[in-house]
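Go through this chain.

——
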Amino acid sequence: MDRRRATAMLAGLAAGWRSGVGSGAGPAGAAAAVPPPGPRDLCPICGMLVAKYPAWVAALRFRTGEVHYFDGAKDLFKFLTDLPRWAPGKRREDVGDVLVTEFYGLQRIDAARAHFVIGSDVLGPMGHELVPLASRAEAEEFVRDHKGRRILQYADLTPDLLARLDRGVFD
């Protein structure tokens, strides 16, 4: 999928979240509506057991109720930016809840409202990770405390950026 199409898809998903479209529970109740991963749930991107990394769990629930768990926000966004590869037959309109675990409180939050820090000294299960924070103030504090390089929003997370993050490139 080309970058422009993936960026448009993420922007559309974020817009849907802001308007409440796509979530049976709505953004405020989405975290409670999506159960935690079980001991055998595997990340569809890397194959890791997700429950082993509760501080990093991300989840995507389709409108059908089908849930996919990820061992970090980076793999969640790899999945979202290439649905035809990872979820054949699914479309952007099929996506319901998109959740990440925020760093400080370890609560699941709406990914469209999160602030993501890259380039810090904090590594996730798969190395360099998108570190989700609940507010801009928390993201700025995290940048200071952990030598973060950039604060990003949902719509900034393109396939190219994710590939560079895997290589440790943060600019």
